[in-house]
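anyone seen this seq b4? input:
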Amino acid sequence: MKKIISKIKEDKKIIPAYLLILILFVAFMPDSGPGGFDKICFTSWSNYIFANGLQNIYKFGIDYLPIFQYILFLYGKTQGTAENVVLNINSLKYVTLLFDVFSAYLVYSFVKTKYKTKESAFLATLFILLNIAYFYNNVIYGQVDGIYTCMVFISLLYGLKKKISLSVFFIVLAINFKLQAIIFLPLIGLLIFPEIWNNLSFKNIIIWLTPVFILQILILLPFIISGDLLILLKVVKSSMGKYPKVSMGAFNVWYLFFEDPNQIFDKQGVFGRSYNKYGLLAFSISLFFTIWLLIKQTFIILKGKKYNSIPTEKIILMATLTPLVFFYFNTQMHSRYIHPAILFGGVYALYTKRPLAFVLLSIAYFLNIENGSKLLKSDITPYTYFFFQPLFVSCIFVIAIIVLLYELYRKPKDVERN
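predicted toks r here
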């Protein structure tokens, strides 16, 4: 508590600025919500919880994990009636907005030592917060990816601070919100491994895992009591492979091979293997190269040798690449699955003042998500501009991946001179 109070006092001029931005977003936020199917889902799930209780929601056949159901439960409570739940469903965006703005504040706290003044650090974070590629997902499209992205970011920050329990706590929280967060487990696990290895004992294992165990039990408790835990586990299992198309709107690598991968089932394939298997293999290989520096460090530690800590900016690059390669190579991807890469790419840009990759990612993500939703276009006819075409956008993503990998394996200038 003392640290929190100290933090508030330290940033007493900056925090009100973020609160003002939050108020302005709320005041001028368009009254749009998630796409047709998602809007129907969010509305019907909220009303079901409102009428039947949170503990019974998995009887309704929903496919989102528990933390989002808690949010819908609280939303229903604030609305008071089933009619209000329907009428005000777009206000769910305010919840995600809180996480989006809080993420920007966390970025400020992380990068402020890189700037001459706190004010300049705050202004730098607007490069992310007011970037349409960042706020489109929630403010315009009404999606909720900013929530688990914030949780993953907190987990990463605690991992960098060698706070094992808190790092694991928040990555588990993120996974309980959206299963996609599981792709960050190798990064987080390898990041905190040196601290675990150096302090490994039965007592410490209990200290590290007890909060996580309690958290998981509390999250699942309503569904355990109602007898629906097995249904929830089936939801987790069935969420993988639910949309068996080569693409679900993601302008990724598959547009280099097919004119319209949205119309091709990913169980089809060539040379005896499905497109799904090829995508998973490509993702696994690219993820291996993404986190190779941490894997290499782990082997050095296990051999009992001394090692040099991996620079913070390299860790942020890995966090940027992880959702990017997940999105770019796998089948069944939606455009919004890349959302965490926008935040982490922005963090890298502000931390190192090397913005090229972030700019490329922002352009490609905006073009991809707007082409799919056409909310700014206000009609459903296809875009004809060349820069909105899937192949063009896919090529921008390729360039962004190359730039990020170059940055990841680039030696610092002082090392190059030696």
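The beta strands are 269-270, 273-274. The CA atoms of residues 168 and 189 lie 8 Å apart. kinda curious what u guys think
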